[in-house]
Specification:
Layout lengths: L7 E6 L8 H19 L1 H7 L6 E3 L3 H5 L6 H11 L6 H7 L2 H15 L9 H15 L4 H18 L3 E7 L1 H15 L7 E7 L6 H4 L17 E7 L17 H5 L5 E5 L7 E3 L2 E3 L3 H5 L2 H18 L1
Parallel strand pairs: 1-2, 1-3, 3-4, 4-5, 5-6
Antiparallel strand pairs: 7-8
């Protein structure tokens, strides 16, 4: 990688809930991300591992919740995740279990009829309420957390850096809204190379009606500063209710304000487990998956080629 101009930057925006202190959380995410890349492209992982300074974490969770999670509750499960090199038969069976299909069906109903929110299980109800809290922007909190991401992106765009922006869950919504504001309110030139969304609710009707720019028409409705968009959804991840985003955001392709949007959802398993059982949505489980690793590896290699 060259020094100075056009550096490669990876920015990660986590999803909801309190996280470990920022420095500790960043190290965990970097460790798991490298393992995912190693499973896909070992040689590229070796090179990427030499550049930890390229990885940034937008730690919005503490300002939002005023609470940190104890890292010790994460470590043994992340160790187990890294030592497991694919989903077990039990993981596959549980990810596709009938109760998850029922929850997905109920969540689809709630997506269009929020009055039935009480019918769904607590984790999904909590996710819906947290998403609603973000959109309400009480005390300007959503604007403040978007500003945290803008502070990272502004100098990178000005420097024409090669940027991979990774948004997990609600983090993908925060990222999308931020990119829209940088496009149309601040009118900053430049584009990020790749927007990688994981376990994203951006396909939900409820979310799309509330995205920044939703009340605009034509090209002003969408961010104009994304070159490529890749979306990953795992089997059994109900937060990613509509796992296909390419069709929802197809007008971006038609208007040529983005070069490509691709969905990756078939046969992808998030096998993160903790004492509560299988969690098909956790960011660690997405990052360790070679499907994510391959996307990150290809971007790293491609951006290096363009720098040479």
């Amino acid at each position: 990688m060259t020094d100075g101009m056009n550096q490669r930057q990876i920015i990660f925006i986590p999803g909801k809930n309190p996280k470990p202190p920022a420095n500790q959380h960043k190290k965990l995410l970097w460790r798991v991300l490298l393992e995912g890349v190693r499973r896909a492209e070992p040689e590229i992982a070796a090179d990427l591992g030499l550049h930890p300074e390229s990885f940034r974490l937008v730690a919005w969770n503490y300002p939002y919740y005023h609470l940190n999670k104890d890292i010790n509750s994460e470590l043994e499960w992340i160790d187990a995740l890294i030592n497991q090199h694919g989903p077990t038969e039990q993981d596959i069976r549980e990810a596709d279990a009938w109760h998850r299909k029922l929850d997905r069906a109920l969540y689809n109903i709630v997506d269009y009829l929020p009055c039935f929110l009480r019918l769904i299980h607590e984790p999904l109800r909590s996710a819906a309420l947290e998403t609603n809290r973000y959109f309400q922007n009480n005390n300007n909190i959503a604007s403040e957390i978007r500003e945290l991401l803008k502070q990272e992106l502004r100098p990178m765009l000005a420097n024409t850096d090669k940027v991979l922006l990774i948004g997990h869950s609600l983090g993908s919504v925060i990222a999308y809204d931020t990119l829209w504001e940088l496009s149309h309110l601040e009118c900053l030139p430049g584009r990020i190379d790749l927007f990688l969304t994981m376990g994203s609710p951006l396909g939900m009707n409820y979310v799309q009606r509330r995205l920044t720019g939703n009340n605009q028409t034509g090209g002003k409705r969408y961010p104009s500063n994304i070159r490529h968009w890749e979306n990953i959804s795992s089997v059994g991840d109900i937060t990613a209710l509509d796992q296909a985003l390419a069709d929802d955001f197809a007008p971006m392709r038609a208007m040529r304000i983005i070069e490509s949007i691709k969905d990756h959802r078939n046969g992808i398993y998030n096998f993160y487990r903790n004492n509560e059982g299988l969690n098909c949505h956790r960011s660690y489980g997405y990052l360790v998956n070679p499907a994510a690793g391959k996307i990150i590896a290809d971007w790293w290699q491609d951006s290096n080629t363009h720098e040479s």
